[in-house]
Structure formats: C-alpha cells, structure tokens
Amino acid sequence: MNTYDYVIVGAGSAGCVLAARLSENPDIRVALIEAGGPDTAQEIHIPAAFSQLFKSDLDWDLDTEPEPGLGGRRTYLPRGKVFGGSSSMNAMIYMRGNPADYDGWAAAGATGWSYADVLPYFRRAEDNERGEDAFHGTGGPLRVSDSRSNHPLAAAFVESAVRAGHKRNDDFNAESQFGVGPYQLTQRDGMRCSTAVAYLHPALQRPNLTVLSSTRAHRVLIGHGRATGVEISRDGAVEVIRAEQEVIVSAGVYESPKLLMLSGVGPAAALSAFGVDVVTDLPVGQGLQDHYMALLNFRTHIESLLTAASPENVALLQSEGRGPLTSNIGEAGGFFRSRDGIQAPDGQLHMAPVLFHQEGLGPVAEHGFALGPCVLAPTSRGHVTLRSPRPDAAPRIVHNYLTTDEDRDCIVNGVRIALDIAARAPLADAITGQYDVPDSDSGPDVLAWARKTGMTLFHPTSTCAIGSVVDPELRVLGVEALRVVDASVFPSVPRGNTNAPTVMAAEKAADLIKETAR
What pLDDT is recorded for position 464? Predict the structure, then answer.
C-alpha cells in the first residue's frame, strides 16, 4: 500500500512522537519515512558512549560553510540519522527553556505558544521519577530521571559555583532557571530514553503504522496548492507515497528546509537558480539560530570518565543501572546573566567530568574535565540554503556564530564566569594543569580562543519559523495539507537544551492535527 492518511518525513525527536500519537487512532493510516535505520547500536543506549556515534553511519555528519564570525573556520554539526534522530545521540539533558521564551513567541504573534499554553504538553510527555507537581508530570512516555552517575567532579563544580555566588538549583524547570546544579536526564534505569524508545517502539506493532527505514525523501509533491504525497527512493527505486490528509515534515532544522526548498517552497530567486519550480515564495531556511559553546579543559588527578568502560563499570550498568557508563557527559551546569539589567539568563554552563575538546572529536588519553559556557540567547541569525537540486546533497549551512557584539560579549563574560568557578575550591583543588584554556582572561585573548575552539551545542532552530514559514498551527503558509513539526518552527532558540521543547511541540502538533482532520 502506498496511500496513507498522514505521511511523516523523519523519525527523529518530533517524528517519533507524531507517529505514535497519530496512530493511536486505529482508523488512521500513518507512514513514517526515515533516512536512517533502527536504533540497535549499543552506543545509542549506553549514555556515556554517545560521542562514539559522531561521524559514524548513524550521523548526518554535516559541516557549516566557512563561518565569518570564526575567522572562516568550518564547524562540525552532528545530527542523528537513525530512529530517534538526535534524541538517539544527544546528551539527554531534560531542559525546557525559560517561560520568557514562550511568552515572547506568543507576544510576537505565535498564538497558542505562551508558557501557559505549552506547559500542559511538557507535563503530558513526561514521566518524572520525582513525581508530579505543578511543573512536572508522571505517566507520560518520556522518562525523566536524576543522574545515576553523580561523578565527584560534577559535585565539585556545583560546590565551587555556589562559593562563587551562584545559588544551588535542583530543578531548572520549576520556579527559576537561575543557579547551578545537576541536570535531570531523559533516561530510564540508567539507559537512554530517546523518542524512539519512549514513543516509537511501543507503537511499532500497530497495523496502521508503517515505517519506511533507509528511505530518502526527495521532495513533497504539491499540486494545485495542496501537498499530496512524498517522492522517495529506497532499495534503488523511486516511488511515491500518497497522503490523503497531510504531509508532515519533521526532518530536522537542516533537512526540513532543504526538503521544502526542493519541493518549490522557499526563496523564489534562490530556487529558480537551481531550476526548481517555485510553488510559493517563503523565507525558508532563514533565521537559523544555535547555542555556541566554548569548552575550557583542565587536567585533574581525580579519575574521570576516561575509565568509564572498565569491566567493573560495565557490570554495574548491567546489574544496577548506575555508575560512570550512565553518565550523560554534561552531568551538571547552570544558568547565569553575563551582564546586569536582564531578567532571563543569557548564558548556560555545562560541566563534563572528562576532557571534551576539538568539537567532541579530540582524543581522550588522560584524566580531565571540561566547562562549557554558551551564548544562550543569541542575537545572530544564520541560514540554510541549497547546495544542489540533488536530494542526497548536504545543504549549505551558515550559523553566523559570534557575528554580533552582544554574542561576542556574552561568550567572553561566560568564559570569565567559568574561569572564576574553576579557580575556587573544591574544583580548583582537583586541577593539576591546563589542557585547553585562553592565554588570559582579557577580552581579546578570550574571544580569539573562543573563535578558534568553540562549537555547536547541538541546538539548531528556527529555519521554518512560526510567523514567517508556518502559521501558529504549523501549517506551511500558502500550501494546504502541509505542516512542519520540529525545532525548525521555533521563532527563536529557547534558553536551554532543545530536545524537550521539540517533544513538546510534537505533542501539541498532534492535537492540532487531530482537531483539523476530516
């Protein structure tokens, strides 16, 4: 059968949620198209092993174009090419962002996306081991747990940060986001709880859900202003999957705009240059945002996660679901103001009890730890454009990291905050030397170092944003029966890790889709 009610492109963080929620109705036929395959690799499920997936066949392995704010340096952009998408290779931090993010979206025209509007969807998705309260839910598909690693270096970081004047915060998703503490994680019994694990796997046995894996989407078919299906290739053959109700693009922040542009939805002049017939002229691919992070690395005499894969730790993981192999790497962190006079945080710290350098690709041969401040509320915007009309060609990506004064000031001040924390006991007592830090804390030295060593925090958003490409119900402007549902619809990047907001958006979108079904 090649005809379904709904055809979803992308079995990532959003697509798995949609496939599960829409197929709850046995009378609805759902097809889920995924370029990758099943999430069977053990490195997916063992939390501390996620960086081993970088540049593997489970990674889209993208790169930016030469970045103007980084002296022309290209940066590496890992994205999951597997069931669960990037939720199968992320650091599993459960973070919603700040209420000001969503209230700002709503104030700018994204009706229905205020914090009060989205909080019920965060709670519906969640099964928090701490229990239910005004902010958290239980019984949802996505398990949210405290760390089963609790590395002593992470605890030392928190104590040093408190001594530096940051308050301790044990729940960044409750009353206040400010402060430092351990992160809650999307884990179940010490193992990764991706959206594939939480949503897709329980739905796979439903006869009304068809998953087409190792299948590339070429373009959305649009006739007379309406999306009617998706052209795909699998097993060497090109075919068409028809959608009687809607096509839903959930291919991610880089691939969703690429697919729309290949389908004739995007900037008219740019599409015409590639010989693509223009269906509707929209700023698809524009407005790209991300969190840029610069990681300070220090040597230490304390045993780090370098030895996490010992036979004893493997046995601990298997028997008790705890220990170093359950570490999500970024075990602790916090939120701060890089300057006075702002109400919401503009910086975030991640602390990893292991060396993490060269964009996560550098060798780890000695004990160390990393502190990574990031630009949490960037003012810079980038873009995603076509490289070629071929569907297997990677898009051109420019983030424009550190191209505004505000972003440059933020990363400099964030690095100084991290250096201040590292200079205080007990973390300072754990340091035996510098591995990769700026030459000094002067503005020019810090900025030069941040430009040379910084990296994505894996949080791209906003390339098909509400208000410019889709309406508040995530319907593509000017095209019937076509929606985009993933982090590309966010008007701006939330203040925090973006997987939980993506799950929330897909939960909300499932309700919006059901409400408009014929």
Answer: 98
Interval 433-445 mean pLDDT: 97
Cα-trace Rg, the chain: 22
Summarised one tens digit per residue, pLDDT across range 384-421 is: 999 999 999 999 999 999 999 999 999 999 999 999 99
Distance CA 149, CA 353 (A): 10
Q: Are 180 and 333 in contact (CB under 8 A)?
A: yes
**Cα distances (angstroms) measured from residue 332 to each of 285, 327, 398:** 33, 10, 30
- B/e letters for 335-364, b = 16+ CB within 10 Å, e = fewer, are bbbbeeeeebbbbbbbbbbbbbbebbeeee
Whole-number Å distance between alpha carbons of 239 and 264: 19
Residues 6+ apart with CB under 8 A from 466: 105, 109, 110, 113, 472, 474, 489, 490, 491
C-beta separation of 280 from 261 below 8 A: no
> Which H or E element spans position 261?
helix 255-262
User: The tokens of 330 are what?
Assistant: 């970024």
Does the active-site annotation cover 459? Answer: yes
Please count the other Cβ atoms lying within 10 Å of the Cβ belonging to residue 155: 17
- The rounded distance, in Å, linking the Cα atoms of 164 and 268 is 52
Write out the two tokens for 406. 């505000």
Virtual CA dihedral for 120, 125, 127, 131, nearest 10 degrees? -10
For 85: left if phi > 0, alpha if psi spans -120 to 50, otherwise beta; the answer is: left
Place of tokens 């790497």: 329
SS3 516: helix
**Cα gap 102→344, rounded to integer Å:** 12
Q: How confident is the model at residue 169 (pLDDT cuts 50, 70, 90)?
A: very high
Q: Per the structure block, which two tokens stand in for 93?
A: 């931090």
Residue with tokens 């100084």: 416
Q: Tokens for 222?
A: 């649009």
- Write out the E strands in 277-367: 280-281, 286-288, 292-293, 296-300, 332-336, 347-352
Catalytic one of 45, 291, 367, 459? 459
Token readout for 57 is 């066949």
Q: What is the pTM of this model?
A: 0.97
Rounded-to-integer distance, Cα 515 and Cα 518, Å: 9
Give the helix, strand, coil percentages of the chain, each rounded to 5: 30, 25, 45
pLDDT band of residue 517 (cuts 50, 70, 90) is confident
